[in-house]
Amino acid sequence: MASSVQELNLLRPGHAACAGCGLAIGMKLVLEVMGPRTVAVIVPSCEGAIGGVYPNTSYGVPTFHSAFEIAAPTAAGIANGLKIQGRDDIQVLAFAGDGGTFDIGLQSLSGVAKNNDDILYVCLDNEAYMNTGIQVSSATPSYAWTNTTPEGNPRRKKNIMEIMAAHYNPYSATATIGYPRDLQQKITKAKGIRGTKFIHLLVPCPTGWRTPSDISPELSILAVETNVFPLYEVEEGRKYTINHEPRRLPVQAYLLKQGRFKHLGEEQIRQVQRDVDEEWEKLKHRASLQG
Question: What is the mean pLDDT of the chain?
């Protein structure tokens, strides 16, 4: 991005994120593009904690701290209030984690998407309830260790992008911190669209993923290149566009760098590979339907 964008330091030094926190990196990249004419909603989660304790904050935009399950309707309420005032120069952004999106906040997000309220919703997906002690969520991958699945999660990860596509909202996209230009281009595109926009942003957590603090971007890249987390867009619930052709690396290149998968046996790794291949073929088929 241009240097003028990079100079917008809207997640300032001194925040309370862990070293190597993918969530903090992701928020910083998003806020750089959103700019100062933004109101952000955060919820009780890592993003609620890292900003600091009142009256201090690391956030460089006005930030409203809402309840865990209502990031989307809180943002919608602010957006509609600004609309009534004729303030069309301010955009409203909601940040929530995977627990607040896939699980406890899914109903309220669905209502906002159904109404097509004019917000940008960013799901900061670190694949578990990290802020409260690393408990399993419906975004936790198959066989992943958490404190509530010590032998590995027995369920597959919920497909939140297909849930959003079923609402026929104007724009949804996946992104990761390992591809910052792709992420920021998608935020720029979303800013130019009216209605409910959704970004599914993968943000590695060194604490919960049991990884060194310096490899979060590398893990994000591997998630994409192994097809565990493809980069794509869905417009109006119909038009699928794959943004990056992966190298199709074997899934163990991604899994075995993480302590949460160290217990996996060969058959479990083969099953993950089968699941990943199946989802990739489905995505390619959907993308081919545009003709």
Answer: 95
* Antiparallel, parallel or unpaired: β 171-176 and 232-235: antiparallel
> Distance (Å, rounded) from C-alpha 155 to C-alpha 276?
14
CA 100, 212, 15, 5 torsion-angle sign: negative
Q: If we measure between CA atoms, which residue out of 36, 16, 33, 35 comes closest to residue 24?
A: 16
Neighbours of 267 (CB within 10 A): 8
- Measure the CA–CA gap between 25 and 218, rounded to whole angstroms: 13
User: How many Cα atoms sit within 13 Å of 113 on the Cβ side?
Assistant: 25
- Rounded to whole angstroms, how far apart are CA atoms 121 and 94? 5
Question: Any idea of the CA torsion for 137, 142, 145, 151, to the nearest 10 degrees?
Answer: 110
pLDDT tens-digit profile of 116-141? 999 999 999 999 999 999 999 999 99
- Residues recorded for the chain: 291
Task: Give 110's DSSP letter.
Answer: H
Helix extents (H) in 93-228: 98, 106-115, 160-165, 180-191, 206-209, 216-225
Q: How far is CA 229 from CA 24, 125, 222, 223, in A?
A: 19, 11, 9, 5
Residue ranges and CATH numbers for the domains of the chain are 3-288 (3.40.50.970)
Q: Which helix (H) or strand (E) holds 50?
A: helix 46-50
**In the prediction, which pLDDT does 48 show?**
86
Q: Would you call 154 exposed, middle or buried from its count of C-beta atoms within 10 A (0-12, 13-18, 19+)?
A: exposed
Q: What are phi and psi of 39, to 5 degrees?
A: -110, 125
Inter-residue contact 23 to 131 (CB < 8 Å): no
Please indicate, yes or no, whether the overall pTM of this predicted structure exceeds 0.85: yes
